[in-house]
Amino acid sequence: MAPDKVPNMDLTLEDSEMQEPEIKPPKNRRHRRRLVREQAESVDVSQASNQTTSIRETVRLNSYSSDCSPRRRMADPSTIGKVESIVSQINQSLLDQDDCISIPLRMKRRANIASPQPSARSLNENYQLSFPGNTPEEAWRFTVVLRILELIHEALVANLIISKRNIYYKDPELFRSQSIVDRYIDILAYTFGIQRAALNVTATAKGLVAGTFKIRYYDGSSSACEGAKDAVVIDRVDEIGSIDISNVDWVLVVEKEAKGYPDISTRAFLRLLSISAHPPPPIYALVDFDPDGIAIMSIYKYGSFTLSHENANIRTPTVRWLGIKSKDLVSDEFNAASDDGDRKGLLSMSTRDRKKAAQMLGKAVYDEDGVEQEWRRELQVMLMLNLKVEMEILSEREGGVERWVEQRLCEGPVRSG
Question: What burial class does residue 252 get, using C-beta atoms within 10 Å of its C-beta: 0-12 exposed, 13-18 middle, 19+ buried?
Answer without folding.
Answer: buried
